[in-house]
């Protein structure tokens, strides 16, 4: 008969539930559950992106369009055939330092039609009449149409470009 004072040993191959590895795993589980369910701190709260301010369709003169060139945090706008496009999502191309930066805040119609990004393609007199593009050939007009379609697919139209003194222009 077994002595009541002798320790009871488990059968070979049977482990105790209170083994050190089980205690460590259980503790880790408790910590993970606590971390998941605890009240959120400022660090753990998700930050949702804020919506950009609403864009209102606006009438621009060349002088009013000029500040929208991407400098000092401004949006990047450019005009094609009287439509003003917000090309800010393409800031790498149209913003400061980009290959098309000359067109930012300007009427880019002639330069796009001629495939030239030179400053000479831009209208110098911002108070003068808009470029009517009457001297462009069929190929240049087709190229301009292609650019215009691309801009319409990719970018939002935010305004209309009119010359100074136009009835729709602000004084």
TrEMBL record:
Protein name: DNA damage response protein
Annotated GO CC locations: endoplasmic reticulum; membrane
UniProt cross-references to InterPro entries, sorted A to Z: Cyt_B5-like_heme/steroid-bd, Cyt_B5-like_heme/steroid_sf, MAPR/NEUFC/NENF-like
Family: Belongs to the cytochrome b5 family. MAPR subfamily.
Compartment(s): Endoplasmic reticulum
Organism: Dissoconium aciculare CBS 342.82
Regions crossing the membrane: 14-35
Chief subcellular location: endoplasmic reticulum
GO molecular-function terms, A-Z: heme binding; metal ion binding
Superkingdom per UniProt: Eukaryota
Residues covered by the Cytochrome b5 heme-binding domain: 60-162
Gene3D superfamilies: Cytochrome b5-like heme/steroid binding domain
Keywords from the UniProt entry: Endoplasmic reticulum, Heme, Iron, Membrane, Metal-binding, Transmembrane, Transmembrane helix
């Amino acid at each position: 008969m077994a002595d009541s004072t002798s320790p009871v040993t488990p059968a070979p191959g049977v482990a105790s539930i209170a083994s050190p590895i089980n205690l460590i795993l259980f503790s880790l589980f408790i910590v993970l559950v606590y971390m998941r369910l605890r009240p959120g701190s400022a660090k753990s709260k998700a930050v949702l992106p804020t919506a950009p301010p609403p864009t209102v369709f606006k009438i621009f003169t060349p002088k009013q369009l000029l500040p929208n060139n991407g400098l000092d945090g401004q949006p990047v706008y450019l005009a094609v055939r009287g439509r003003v496009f917000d090309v800010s999502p393409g800031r790498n191309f149209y913003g400061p330092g980009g290959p098309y930066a000359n067109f930012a805040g300007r009427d880019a119609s002639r330069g796009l039609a001629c495939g030239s990004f030179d400053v000479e393609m831009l209208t110098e007199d911002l108070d003068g009449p808009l470029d009517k593009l009457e001297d462009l050939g069929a190929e240049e007009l087709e190229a301009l149409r292609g650019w215009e379609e691309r801009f319409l697919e990719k970018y939002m139209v935010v305004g209309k470009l009119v010359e100074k003194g136009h009835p729709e222009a602000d004084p």
